[in-house]
């Protein structure tokens, strides 16, 4: 494995930086055997972005140097980007467009040392920007406070926005909806209703093509935001689903009437967590809330199977998944600078992020108004990144 960029010892923890590669998968599997994962950081997902030139990604690895052989204790993928050609580059913890969680995967026994080692590795690498954007970062009780503690003495941070994302876990679960049961009875009068969720690689990829077609024919196709509207987005998303499906980490649930798919829910998996990544449905069936219906059915089935404990909606607080999942998790959007002194670049980056938030908020509200006007209330996009 190429880890020659930089290594910095921090107590018993060292940090290294490398590009995405297939040799990271074994390290990843070792790490998530001891802690929760983040499917958007999975090496197979990062490879999909790298192989299609969808994003320039740097992978930070943390190691416990006191074990023999040393073992991985931290994994964080950061995307290098710039908003405009003449603007300075920065790092973003959503490693590519269409990722929805920017959290690092960190062994809970070494949180403070791993955070310190990651930030120090970035400081010392002359090729890397020192400002990091943290969109959709879960404000968990361990990692996020450790970041703030470290930056209080050796960097700067600005929390721009805090929100609650619809979630399901052992304490919350899935909401019960009498309206969905009523709409299901109404839909059953149209034809035979069936929900499938094929987990085989070939089945998942075939179902994803159905999803792509449904999305392109929906309001997203009309607005030009469907995946098939951009050849780069389409190429990346197909590679993403292929890479993850081969590992059993992706599937597409289809809601069918008389064998014809009217809605699709794309799901990604990491351990006992499922992510309701993307949804599409036939506008002609909008009165039945098919997007809501397929999400309710598949999430309930996953939880009842016992194989899935947590469901991440990848949704905005006012998205349709808020009507499906009973729990909430706190997330933040923040900007940090790992340098000990303030910089003009940091102030500019904070201002740019505030502007993007304002624009995204206005666009989200306009889409909601348009959706309600069209009678399509079950699909409202997230305000964080591409949806």
Write out the CATH superfamily name of the largest domain.
Answer: Gcn5-related N-acetyltransferase (GNAT)
Could you tell me how far the N terminus lies from the C terminus, measured between alpha carbons in angstroms? Answer: 33 Å
* Unreliably modeled segments: 1-9, 375-384
Rounded Rg: 21 Å
- The quaternary structure here is single chain
Largest sheet: 14 strands, mixed
Determine the mean pLDDT: 89
The CATH topology assignment of the largest domain is Aminopeptidase
Number of domains: 2
* Number of helices, where a helix is a run of at least 4 consecutive DSSP H or I residues: 10
In the CATH classification, which architecture of the largest domain applies?
Answer: 3-Layer(aba) Sandwich
* CATH class designation of the largest domain: Alpha Beta
The succession of helices and strands, N to C, reads EEHHEEEEHEHEHEHHHEEEHEEH
Please characterize this protein's 3D structure.
By secondary structure, the chain is an alpha+beta fold. It folds into two domains: 7-164 and 330-365, 3-Layer(aba) Sandwich (Aminopeptidase), CATH 3.40.630; 178-328, Gcn5-related N-acetyltransferase (GNAT) (Aminopeptidase). Helix content is 36%, strand content 27%. It contains ten helices and 14 strands. The protein has helices spanning 24-32, 43-51, 111-124, 143-154, 178-188, 201-216, 219-223, 231-246, 290-305, 344-374; strands at residues 7-10, 13-18, 56-64, 71-81, 90-92, 105-106, 131-138, 156-168, 193-198, 250-257, 260-270, 273-281, 310-312, 327-337. Strands 1, 2, 3, 4, 5, 6, 7, 8, 9, 10, 11, 12, 13 and 14 form a 14-stranded mixed sheet that branches. A hairpin with a 2-residue loop joins strand 1 and strand 2 (13-18). Helix 3 crosses helix 4. The longest helix has 31 residues, at 344-374. It is globular and about 65 Å long. The two termini are 33 Å apart. The model is unreliable at 1-9 and 375-384 (pLDDT under 50).
């Amino acid at each position: 494995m190429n880890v020659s960029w930089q290594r910095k010892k921090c107590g018993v923890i060292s940090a290294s930086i490398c590009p995405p590669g297939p040799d990271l998968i074994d390290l990843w599997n070792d790490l998530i055997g001891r802690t929760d994962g983040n499917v958007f950081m999975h090496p197979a997902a990062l490879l999909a972005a790298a192989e299609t030139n969808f994003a320039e990604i740097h992978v930070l690895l943390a190691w416990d140097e006191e074990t023999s052989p040393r073992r991985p204790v931290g994994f964080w993928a950061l995307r290098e980007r710039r908003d405009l050609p003449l603007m300075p580059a920065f790092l973003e913890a959503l490693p590519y467009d269409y990722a929805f969680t920017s959290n690092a995967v960190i062994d809970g026994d070494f949180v403070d040392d791993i955070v310190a080692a990651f930030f120090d590795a970035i400081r010392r690498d002359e090729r890397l920007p020192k400002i990091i954007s943290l969109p959709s970062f879960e404000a968990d009780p361990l990692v996020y406070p450790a970041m703030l503690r470290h930056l209080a003495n050796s960097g700067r941070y600005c929390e721009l926005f805090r929100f609650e994302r619809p979630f399901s876990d052992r304490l919350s679960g899935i909401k019960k909806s009498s309206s969905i049961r009523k709409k299901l009875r109404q839909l059953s009068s149209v034809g035979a209703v069936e929900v499938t969720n094929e987990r085989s690689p070939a089945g998942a990829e075939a179902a994803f093509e159905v999803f792509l077609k449904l999305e392109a024919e929906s309001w997203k196709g009309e607005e030009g935001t469907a995946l098939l509207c951009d050849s780069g987005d389409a190429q990346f998303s197909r590679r993403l689903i292929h890479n993850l499906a081969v590992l059993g980490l992706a599937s597409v649930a289809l809601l069918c009437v008389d064998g014809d798919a009217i809605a699709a829910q794309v799901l990604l998996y990491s351990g006992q967590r499922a992510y309701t990544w993307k949804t599409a449905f036939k506008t002609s069936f909008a009165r039945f809330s098919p997007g809501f219906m397929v999400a309710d059915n598949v999430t309930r089935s996953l939880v009842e199977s016992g194989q899935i404990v947590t469901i991440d909606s990848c949704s905005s607080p006012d998205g349709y998944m808020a009507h499906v999942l009973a729990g909430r998790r706190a997330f933040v959007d923040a900007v940090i600078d790992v340098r000990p002194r303030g910089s003009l670049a940091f102030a500019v980056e904070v201002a740019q992020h505030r502007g993007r938030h304002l624009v995204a908020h206005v666009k989200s509200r306009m889409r909601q108004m348009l959706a309600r006007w069209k009678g399509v209330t079950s699909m409202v996009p997230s305000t964080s990144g591409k949806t």
